[in-house]
Write a structure and sequence with these properties.
Organism: Modestobacter marinus
Radius of gyration: 15 Å
CATH topology: Aminopeptidase
Strand content: 25-35%
Helix content: 25-40%
Largest sheet: 4 strands, antiparallel
Function: Acyltransferase required for the direct transfer of medium- to long-chain fatty acyl moieties from a carrier protein (MbtL) on to the epsilon-amino group of lysine residue in the mycobactin core.
Low-confidence stretches: none
Mean pLDDT: 95
Order of helices and strands: EHHHEEHEHEHEE
Number of domains: 1
CATH class: Alpha Beta
CATH architecture: 3-Layer(aba) Sandwich
InterPro entries: Acyl_CoA_acyltransferase, Acyltransferase_MbtK/IucB-like, GNAT_dom
Distance between the termini: 21 Å
Structural class: alpha+beta
Pfam families: Acetyltransf_8
Strand order of the largest sheet: 1-2-3-4
Keywords: Acyltransferase, Antibiotic resistance, Transferase
Shape: globular
Number of helices: 6
Length: 180
């Protein structure tokens, strides 16, 4: 059961209108409680595009068409996230994490999300040669997300309470782990 071919392309400002549309898409908005306005997208993603934020942000592309977004970052660059996750599980030195969304509704349920996740993990390991782990916390209720992680090769690592991305969610999270 192979995954479809997915390329990662760095996010560009020209992609911001597409990202605004994706963030407003109902299923994405349910789990990514981000403001989809152009000004908010610029504030959130502009620094990564400019290279002033160390988070790498990519579009997942299949057969020439972008379908999703994935961010790759080191926990060392996100001390609040590191502290919060460390309260429920060990975070190995140099660990990375990813955040992802499938913005095109027709791209869901066909393996593209899992393929984008696998590509992002491989890219993270290539760009951070000292990293041995990618830890990904996901709201327990977001079953599609953690199933995509497992399909991409992650294993369950921990469970506990974390501040949810969307304040309407309970704090229950599962953490999945990829190892080099």
């Amino acid at each position: 059961m192979g995954l479809p071919a997915v390329e990662l392309r760095p996010l560009r400002r020209a992609d911001f209108p597409l990202l605004c549309r994706w963030l407003a898409e109902p299923l994405v908005a349910r789990w990514w409680d981000d403001d989809p306005s152009p000004a908010a997208v610029e504030r959130q993603y502009g620094p990564s595009v400019d290279g002033t934020d160390p988070t790498a942000v990519y579009l997942g592309v299949h057969e020439g068409q972008p379908f999703g977004l994935v961010q790759v970052y080191a926990f060392a660059d996100e001390p609040e996230s590191l502290a919060e996750l460390s309260a429920i599980c060990p975070v190995p030195a140099g660990a990375l994490s990813i955040d992802y969304l499938v913005g095109e509704p027709e791209a869901r349920g066909c393996g593209l999300g899992a393929a984008m996740i696998a590509a992002a993990v491989a890219r993270g390991f290539a760009d951070h040669p000292g990293a041995q782990d990618v830890l990904v916390p996901v709201a327990l209720g977001n079953e599609g997300s953690w199933r995509a992680l497992r399909r991409a090769g992650a294993r369950w690592y921990a469970a506990g309470e974390l501040v949810p991305d969307n304040p309407v969610d309970p704090p229950d999270h599962v953490v999945h782990r990829f190892t080099r």
